[in-house]
Known about the structure:
The protein is mainly beta. It has one domain (13-47, 55-283): Beta Barrel (Thrombin, subunit H), CATH 2.40.10.10. Helix content is 8%, strand content 30%. The protein has four helices and 17 strands. It has helices spanning 73-76, 98-101, 159-166, 268-275, and strands at residues 3-6, 17-20, 26-27, 30-31, 38-44, 55-63, 68-71, 82-85, 116-123, 137-141, 174-179, 196-201, 213-217, 225-226, 235-238, 244-251, 259-264. Strands 1, 2, 4, 11, 12, 13, 15, 16 and 17 form a nine-stranded antiparallel beta sheet that branches. The longest helix is centred in the middle third of the chain and has 8 residues, at 159-166.
Amino acid sequence: MSKRFALLATLGLGLVSFAGSAGAITGNYTDDFTHDAVGLLVFYTPNTPAGEDPFSHRCSGTLISPTLMVTAGHCTQGVDEGRAYFAQSVAPNYDPAAFGGFGGDPTTGYPYLNGVTFHRADNYGFPAGFPGTNDAGVVVLDQPVSPANGFGALPTAGAIDRYLAASKDKKQARFTVSGYGLSDQDPRPVSFRERLMATSYAIEGESTFTDANLKTTSNASQGKGGTCNGDSGGPVYFDGTNIIAAVTSFGMNGHCKGIDYSFRLDRPEVLAWINDPNRVDAG
């Protein structure tokens, strides 16, 4: 189950589809056993009455310390409680009839048991309108997690601009995306609930979107891939590094094709908010 934000009324753009709640990894994806700091985040609806399904939506996120995960603001908007799962395959035995008909995996416990619980999820300021959606968020885990391959790392201020400037053309500005979202949306959703990864590249860096958002291809051409529903909040790494340039945010196509937009983390004000233990939660 994924939560999709069509911001026709809120932001005035009818074609915008927020990936988290957009994005599984699409196109030429592979199983991701490399980025084990990337986890599947399950969020619960606040104050769910007894006997009703507490599951709200799922997103992806990245550990940058033992208890702090970076994700998207639209994932953490209005919610604080849930679970994080870090296995590459979170729900290999998913059963729609599990957990009293709510659905889930009775072996792994997804999405109601096991994993690592959290009771704090902060929203940087989503929704804020285009182009600056303020689509960053963090989740604070109740218990520490230490990924075998190391934590994700925040970028330095202006890192994307320097990276693009150093590339001879945009297609050489490569990025690695990772997440647990859908792998296809056309003609029907395909969801493995597995951590997948793909390589994408930057396209056209001059539009008004790119002050706040990194714009990359999501087409499966030239061996590349992109993001889809459920990948929201997942990392967009500078290729070959553990440095998170941006978090998956939204796409302009409901079938997860064409162009991906990810919210840039390489701005001083965003970095300061993430690193502040007393950060203000916008809701």
